[in-house]
Amino acid sequence: MSGFTIAILLLGLLGAYLLGSMPTGFVLGKVLQGIDIREHGSGNTGATNVFRVMGKSAGITALIIDLLKGVAAIVWMRWLLSSGWSLSPWMQDWAYVMAALLAVIGHSKSVWIGFSGGKSAATGLGVLLALAWPVGLSVAAVFAVAVAISRTVSVGSMVAALCVPVLMWLLAEPLAYILFAIAGGLYVLLRHRSNFSRLLAGTEPKTFGKQTPQETQTVQTLRSKQ
User: Fold this and answer.
1) Per-domain residue ranges for the chain?
2) Closest Cα to residue 104, out of 161, 167, 168?
3) Looking at the predicted structure, is the pLDDT value of residue 209 above 70?
4) Average of per-residue pLDDT values in the chain
5) Which bin fits 47, alpha (ψ -120 to 50), beta or left (φ > 0)?
6) Which of 47, 85, 26, 10 is nearest to 207 (CA)?
7) Mean pLDDT of 207-222
8) How far apart are CA 24 and CA 42, in angstroms?
9) What band does 147 get if pLDDT is binned at 50, 70 and 90?
10) Residue 172 φ then ψ, to 5°
């Protein structure tokens, strides 16, 4: 591999991270309501917190943009590698996987806002749709069913993260993609560890539907940080 090809790969990876690190929720908070979303609700910049703090329209906007960031990171890397640089298919797979992982990490560790961010579920779905769309659509379906049953986005995100490696394997995706699914899924689960603790305690607030008194207290506690 030539030094120029390595430079192209590094440029692709840097671009993937920067795309993933675009702080959608933070920008929406500042532009729409003049707030720092990190000082409200759960304190993260993801679409769920934007939804709770700023309302449905802002939450859906954050969700769509965060998903598109993941798609864009893979499209960017593919565009660079389609410009005539000689890489074997397996090396291209690994290049896409590294770009995907950096986009996911970038969402939760954004260089623009002190390496804070969201929980990477939406951006993770975006990279899945770009890497292997049948897997991405299947994961989206799993997420939707889990949220419909639990009325809680965090449950849907964790269940979907657990299912990604299995779906990658069942749909016979490349080994690099399967390993990314394991690493990315574990990362998303780690980002949701506080949600998991609240679920065990029965205090995780529902995103949709009526909340129990304990769940309401949790929301009030989270918002007391503002």
Assistant:
1) 3-223
2) 161
3) no
4) 90
5) alpha
6) 47
7) 51
8) 16
9) very high
10) 55, 45
Q: Please, are residues 146 and 156 in contact by the beta-carbon 8 Å criterion?
A: yes
**Residue at 45: amino acid letter:** T
Residue-wise pLDDT tens digits, 66-75 = 999 999 999 9
Query: What percentage of the chain exceeds 70 in pLDDT?
Result: 90
Q: Contact 146/70 with Cβ under 8 angstroms?
A: no
Q: How distant, in Å, are the alpha carbons of 59, 86, 105 from that of 38?
A: 14, 43, 18
At 225, the pLDDT band (50, 70, 90 cuts) reads very low
The span from the CA of 215 to the CA of 53, in Å, is 15
Structure tokens that stand for 220 in this block:
């009030």
Residue 205 corresponds to which tokens in the numbers above? 């607030």
Measured CA to CA in angstroms, residue 127 lies from 9, 74, 140, 168, 190 at distances of 17, 6, 12, 13, 18
CB 206 within 8 A of CB 152: yes
More confident residue, 12 or 6: 12
| CB-count burial class (<10 Å; 0-12, 13-18, 19+) for 172 | exposed
| Nearest residue to 17 (alpha-carbon basis) of 82, 91, 77 | 77
pTM of the entire predicted model: 0.88
Kindly indicate the confidence band of residue 85, based on its pLDDT and cuts at 50, 70 and 90: low
Helices (H), 55-174: 56-81, 89-108, 121-131, 133-150, 153-170
Which residue in this structure is represented by tokens 């959608």?
24
Indicate the burial class of 19 (C-beta count within 10 angstroms; 0-12, 13-18, 19 or more).
buried
